[in-house]
Amino acid sequence: MFKESGRSESQKSNEKMFVGGLRDTTTEDDVREAFQEYGNIKNIELIKDKATNKTRGFCFVTFDDYDPVDKCVCKL
Questions:
Q1: What is the pTM of this model?
Q2: 38 vs 26, 31, 33, CA distance in Å?
Q3: Which of 27, 30, 51, 63 is 20 to 30 Å apart from 5, CA to CA?
Q4: How many Cα atoms within 13 Å fall on the side-chain side of residue 63?
């Protein structure tokens, strides 16, 4: 449960952030536009339904640093 740093997984800083509550029409560009002000985005994983190819209502945004994720969490 505890890593060598003495911090549990729940206290570990992350570069990857879960984003939920998306419309099924949300595009990668929409997500990028909403979050690029917080930092440099490395990757956006927009999860889609295999049958309909529509967004399932959530995605993962990966930044190049943990600081943008912390900023987003504090603001939202």
A1: 0.77
A2: 19, 12, 10
A3: 63
A4: 21
| Residue 8 structure tokens | 């549990």
pLDDT digits (tens, 9 = 90+) for 11-63: 567 899 999 999 988 999 999 999 999 999 999 999 998 998 888 999 999 99
Helices (H), the chain: 28-35, 67-75
Integer Cα distance of 7 and 25 in angstroms: 38
Pairing of strands 16-20, 41-48: unpaired
| Residue spans of beta strands (DSSP E) within 1-76 | 16-20, 41-48, 55-63
